[in-house]
Amino acid sequence: MAKMKLYYSPSSPYARKVRVLAIEAKLDKKLDMVNVALSPVAPNADVDKHNPVGKIPVLSIKNMDLFDSPVICEYLDHQHKGRKLFPRKGRDRWMALRQQAMGDGLLDAALLARYEGFLRPEERRWPDWTKGQMKKIDGVLGQLEAEAKALKGKPTIGTISIGCALGYLDFRFGNYDWRGKHPKLAKWFATFSRLPSMKATVPPPA
After folding, report:
1. Do residues 177 and 121 both lie within one domain?
2. Of 48, 77, 106, the domain-final residue
3. How much is the average pLDDT of 125-151?
4. 55 and 146 both lie in a single domain
5. What's the pLDDT band for 115 if we cut at 50, 70, 90?
6. Residue 189 belongs to domain spanning
7. Could you tell me if 96 and 72 lie in one domain?
8. pTM value > 0.85
9. 104 shares its domain with 154
């Protein structure tokens, strides 16, 4: 298999999803990692060449660039012969994709709240916007708490997405005590966080 080039940032939760899946699929040694710096207000010219949206992660392979973490993850899951992280059929597949959607939805809201409070000039910040994003986060966390039993078992794209989303809350929202109201989810995450793939991709100190 030819070497693949992954444009990423150690602090990007979406890139972390790709990196965790690559490790679980034993493909991480096949990735040429390109650490880039960018933000919505400070794009990266190299990334722009490979992704018209200008976001990471981007996976550059022969004659094609793939972007958006669900697409990259599914591509990688087709490149190995081990246990699939995207279940192939039936209820297991739809549950994993549904969990991925919840994890990504939580991340989307968390990033928007982060950008509002960190990138936007203080005099232009909109508290109701942040409140609205935090409401989405609370909604996802409540649903995950109710479904915590379904998260158990070997990693899938669903639980990887959720694990990376919860890790991002710890990384960027350290004062937000999500564990207090969601003890079952917190217990699952404590176990999931001990996976070598999760430990190897913890973002650097904020």
Report:
1. yes
2. 77
3. 91
4. no
5. low
6. 90-199
7. no
8. yes
9. yes
One DSSP character per residue, 58-89 reads EEEETTEEEESHHHHHHHHHTS-SS--SS--S
Q: pLDDT band for position 89 (50/70/90)?
A: very high
Give the amino acid at 98: R
- The count of domains in the chain is 2
Q: Check pLDDT > 80 for residue 69.
A: yes
Alpha helices in the chain (DSSP H): 13-24, 45-50, 69-77, 90-118, 127-146, 157-172, 178-181, 183-192, 196-199
Residue 112 lies in a domain: yes
* Confidence band, pLDDT 50/70/90 cuts, at residue 38: confident
Question: In the prediction, which pLDDT does 26 show?
Answer: 97
CB-CB contact of 72 with 66 (8 Å): yes
Residue 5's H or E segment, with its range, is strand 4-8
Please give the Cα distance from 164 to 108 (Å, whole number).
Answer: 12
In percent, how much of the chain has pLDDT > 70? 94
- Pair 30, 129 in one domain: no
Do 68 and 95 belong to one domain? no
Residue 200's closest CA among 2, 26, 7? Answer: 26
